[in-house]
Amino acid sequence: MSITMTELAKRLNLSQSTVSLVLNNRDKGRVRPELAEQIRQMAQATGFRPNRAAADLRRRCSNTIGVAIAYSNNFHRTELVNELHTEIVRRNYRPLFAFFSTEEEQRAATDLLLSSNLDAIITLEPKLLPDKLNLPVVSFSHEDPRFDAVVFDFETGIQQTFDHLKSLGHYRFGWIGFGSIDTRSRMLAELAPAAGVEFIPEATLRMDPPYPYIEKPGALDWWKDLPQDARPTAIICHNDTVAIYTIRRLREAGFRVPEDISVIGLDNINLCTQITPTLSSIGYENSGIIARKLIDLVFRRMEKPSSPRHVEHLAPKLFPRESTASSRHAKN
Predict the structure, then answer these.
(1) Which range, of 15-19, 53-57, 175-179, averages the lowest pLDDT?
(2) From CA 92, how far away is CA 58, in angstroms rounded?
(3) How far is it, in rounded angstroms, from Cα 67 to Cα 51?
(4) Strand (E) positions, 12-154?
């Protein structure tokens, strides 16, 4: 049987208010970090469980953070959901996930969150949220001017991609991913001329979404019929999930990666180091970095509701691995 907060405070020889601040995640700047950690460890060791219902009633809040996120074949989304769940629970809050794939489901997911008693919302698609929303909102990837946001620094990521491939002698690329609706797809085409590289039209596949196509066995068999001058030496993929399927489809068509063609992805998911060849990618050490940034921004907004809008631009880094190698057609 778990002990009460009063009993926990007595064991620690601390005031109940100090213990309450820590266990309700309101200790930042108020309680010394080493003391806060001591309180959390004692709470875990004694099996303390806060009475959420009573606390919510007193504070007129739910200790719940809603998350709106699209269903996807993208493995990175799965990792992000797991990390968000872990981070929200670690802060002594509850997550409420609302998933969607179609626009109709997206509206239903938005309605679910808006009809729930939430303290804040994290969303990958903020466009359906009302303008007058008395609730902290943090958007991921989509920089909606109404809300705080955590966004990927696409320009830095693209420049790292170009620099890495050019260092290996690659100047002619293919693209497999989304079309004009995707920011990265547009920016790749826009930045290519200044970088001195080109995308081969015959090997550039822009699909919204690309997953149903690239998941099918034999989807790239037609690449065997491309003339030599229409074959890229490297393929840039929308993300790691698309890159993994692309490597499989290329092998089915008789191409070796990276001997015949290099492949690079985006997101640096855990599978990048588990497949053969290991996958070069642009991203972060892990999805936990993104989850922590999103949650930090949520709590910043909850603590200071009237503070100016904040956008966190996350600069990615290059993770070179076996799927990219020197081009056999490198410039001398």
Answers:
(1) 53-57
(2) 16
(3) 23
(4) 64-70, 94-100, 120-123, 137-140, 148-152
pTM over 0.85: no
- Judged by DSSP in three states, 297 sits in helix
Inter-residue contact 268 to 282 (CB < 8 Å): yes
Q: How far is CA 320 from the centre of its chain?
A: 20
The phi and psi torsions of 163 (rounded to 5 degrees) equal -60, -40
Q: Note whether 264 and 161 are within 8 A (CB).
A: yes
258 prior amide bond cis, ω within 30: yes
Amino acid found at 95: P
- Give the pLDDT score at 264: 98
Q: Which residue has the tokens 């003339």?
A: 227
Pairing of β 120-123 and β 64-70: parallel
Beta bridge partners of 204: 175
- pLDDT cut 70: percent of the chain above it: 94
C-alpha 25/C-alpha 87 separation (Å) is 12
Instruction: Convert the pLDDT of each residue in 97-118 to its tens digit.
Output: 998 888 888 888 888 888 888 9
Q: Which residues pair with 172 in a beta bridge?
A: 198
**Stronger pLDDT, 252 or 143, i.e. the higher one:** 252
Task: Kindly state the average pLDDT of the residues 90-97.
Answer: 91
pLDDT score, position 320: 97
**In degrees, to the nearest 5, what angle opens at C-alpha 288 toward C-alphas 27 and 99?**
100
Residue by residue, DSSP assigns 195-220 as HT-EEEEEEEEE-SSSHHHHTSTTTT
- Of 257, 172, 170, whose CA–CA distance to 220 is shortest? 257
Q: In the chain, what percentage of residues exceed pLDDT 90?
A: 57
DSSP secondary structure code for residue 128 in this structure: G
Task: Tell me the C-alpha distance between 242 and 287, whole Å.
Answer: 18
| Cross-strand pairs, 265 | 281
Instruction: Spell 288-299 as b/e; 16+ CB within 10 A means b.
Output: bebbbbbbebbb
Are 120 and 65 contacting, i.e. CB atoms less than 8 angstroms apart?
yes
